[in-house]
Design brief:
Strand 11 (about 190-200) and strand 12 (about 200-210) form a beta hairpin. The longest helix is centred in the last third of the chain and has 26 residues, at about 340-365. Helix content is about 30%, strand content about 35%. The chain has helices at about 15-25, 65-75, 90-100, 175-185, 230-240, 255-265, 275, 280-285, 290-295, 340-365, and strands at about 5-10, 30-35, 45-50, 55-60, 80-85, 105-110, 120-125, 130-140, 150, 165-170, 190-200, 200-210, 215-225, 245-250, 300, 305-310, 325-330. The protein has 2 domains: about 5-150, 2,3-Dihydroxybiphenyl 1,2-Dioxygenase, domain 1 (Roll), CATH 3.10.180; about 165-360, 2,3-Dihydroxybiphenyl 1,2-Dioxygenase, domain 1 (Roll), CATH 3.10.180. The chain is of the alpha+beta class and about 375 residues long. The protein has a 9-stranded mixed sheet.
């Protein structure tokens, strides 16, 4: 399947304006378009956010008839649609359905009278309540006759993030291999990386699939039920089933991005100082000075092709489920074998107190 990349990601949220305010304030996005009943989007209010080449849709239901209403009721705010940029949306839709994908919405063409731009979309099932939208663009309009563009004020500084690097999915125990096989069969993805991650008494299985163009990458994770409960189990419980745990935004300057977003109010996972004491012994000389990474908690790893720098944000979700990642790649194409446990451990430190408080509250009601 000819997937050109991740065109955009759509969140279903309780309040699109409130969610937009946080992303614009903390992570530097700006509102690039808006739509609703007045633009032909029935029973919904949608905002388009942009930062670099990253495009995020925030959609809130205006009635119980819209799927965002049921989604938010089941999961809280979260990723509902991951859209693929393609050359022929109808052909991709037909191929996906023939390969076993559920049809969610047949091909539709969007155009308006103000330009010759057209956008063709079609939607098929993904995993859990997450679906995939094929997007074929003929012109520059994001979504003609559905979203009204909203020009952004000139940005004083350069964009701090570029595109969506990858997404991470959490699935229940026993569903990892079936989910990976589905993306291979339906979308033509390839398995490029797999690892068992052990942190203390917890464990998880991770497999990474990628489109043939290497422009869409998904990390799919399931908990090891033979070990102690951890953050993957927490996500599945608090989210109410499988879903997108995080999206990673690529950046060309992770130090500036983390420092700026932190000052704007975005929290980030903390890393013990001991991690940096042995860093050069583990990965060798780093492209970025360790004394710039240590105060911000940025992690370093490498694969066969180069280095990568990563950090997780703290979750601002009311259910403590979804969060963001920032990643800067210096030639690295996959994921290092040391950063995944370190990232997991950093997120575990953040969520351990939350889990303990929830467990105590539940026990108190018994």
């Amino acid at each position: 399947m000819d997937i050109l990349g991740i065109d955009h990601v759509e969140f279903y949220v309780g309040d699109a304006r409130q969610s937009a305010f946080f992303l614009c304030t903390a992570f530097g996005f700006h509102v690039a378009g808006h739509g609703g009943p007045e633009t032909g989007l029935d029973a919904q209010r949608t905002l388009l956010l942009s930062h670099g080449d990253s495009r995020i849709l925030l959609t809130s239901a205006l009635s119980g008839a819209h799927p965002a209403d049921g989604y938010v009721s089941r999961h809280g705010d979260g990723v509902a649609v991951i859209a693929f940029a393609v050359r022929d949306a109808a052909a991709c839709y037909e191929r996906a359905v023939a390969a076993g994908a559920a049809s969610v919405e047949p091909p539709r063409v969007f155009k308006d009278d103000s330009s010759a731009d057209t956008v063709t979309t079609a939607v098929v099932g993904g995993f859990g309540d997450v679906v995939h939208r094929f997007v074929q663009r003929d012109g520059t309009a994001f979504w003609p006759a559905a979203l009204e563009p909203q020009p952004a004020a000139p940005r004083a500084d350069a964009d701090l993030v570029r595109a969506i690097d990858h997404a991470a999915f959490c699935v229940p125990a026993g569903e990892l291999e079936a989910t990976v096989e589905y993306y291979q069969r339906v979308f033509g993805f390839k398995l490029i990386f797999e690892e068992y991650v052990e942190v203390g008494t917890q464990g998880m299985y991770s497999q990474v699939v990628q489109s043939p163009s290497a422009t869409a990458t998904f990390t799919i994770i399931q908990p090891d039920m033979s070990r102690d409960r951890g953050q993957i189990d927490d996500f599945l419980t608090w989210h109410g089933g499988p879903g997108v745990q995080h999206l990673a935004l690529s950046t060309d300057d992770i130090v500036a991005a983390v420092a700026t977003f932190r000052d704007n109010g975005a929290g980030f996972a903390e890393t013990p100082g001991a991690y940096y004491d042995v860093l050069t012994d583990r990965v060798g000389a780093t492209d970025l000075p360790v004394d710039r990474l240590r105060p911000l908690g940025i992690l370093v790893d490498r694969d066969h092709w180069g280095q990568m720098y990563q950090i997780f944000s703290k979750s601002m979700h009311i259910r403590r489920t979804y969060f963001w990642e920032l990643i800067e790649r210096h030639g690295a194409r996959t994921f290092g074998t040391s950063n995944i446990p370190a990232l997991y451990a950093a997120k575990e430190r953040e969520l351990a107190d939350v889990r303990e408080a929830v467990d105590l509250k539940v026990a108190g009601h018994r």
